[in-house]
């Protein structure tokens, strides 16, 4: 695609503008998730027709729509906030706090086995995973528990008014797993 030339040629020192991202969003035909862990990233999420925040829930933003209802943008903070980094001592690096929270919650969800209707855990069925809205809510809650991040406001933007994605490392039925 044309956007790759603009986004990845650092020698040109081109900026990734909101207009470039908006033009890209109109071209996408498949389900897509963007994660922006950078200062003022909420300005990107607020371009979407629908947004969610942990405190305020869902709100309708714009009359313009993207035809693909399966585009989601997760932003680490509002348009007026700075995005925090955390020190990761295992690898001796600084990482985005939002990215770390996202990966931590997603990793924890991959091991979760929901209870059956009678309240027991059926360990013969590998039905772990997490719905995108729950993932976003848990990331927001997780960030509120870290000192210094309680005032950072993550935003999720969407081209559709429903959240239907489920992240699952084990999406195949047990019968299909045996064939592999």
Number of helical regions: 6
**Largest beta sheet, briefly?**
5 strands, mixed
Q: What is the radius of gyration?
A: 18 Å
Strand order of the largest sheet: 1-4-8-2-3
| Through-space gap between termini | 34 Å
Instruction: Output mean pLDDT.
Output: 75
Which spans of ≥5 residues are poorly predicted at pLDDT below 50?
Answer: 1-10, 121-126, 171-180
The percentage helix is 25-40%
Number of beta-strand segments: 9
Report the portion of residues in β strands. Answer: 15-25%
Order of helices and strands: HHEHEEEEEHEHEEH
Shape: globular
Q: Which class of secondary structure composition applies to the elements?
A: alpha+beta
What attributes does this structure have?
180 residues, alpha+beta, five-stranded mixed sheet, two-stranded antiparallel sheet, disordered C terminus
Summarize the structure.
With 180 residues, this protein is an alpha+beta fold. Helix content is 29%, strand content 19%.
Structure explained in plain terms:
The chain has helices spanning 2-8, 18-27, 42-45, 97-109, 132-144, 174-179, and strands at 32-36, 50-53, 57-60, 71-75, 85-88, 93-96, 130-131, 155-158, 166-167. The strands form three sheets. The chain has a five-stranded mixed β-sheet. The protein has a two-stranded antiparallel ribbon with strand order 5-6. The chain contains six helices and nine strands. The chain is 29% helix and 19% strand. Helix 4 (97-109) packs across helix 5 (132-144). Mean pLDDT is 75; it is low at 1-10, 121-126 and 171-180. The two termini are 34 Å apart. The chain has 180 residues and is α+β, with helices and mostly antiparallel strands. It is globular, with a radius of gyration of 18 Å.
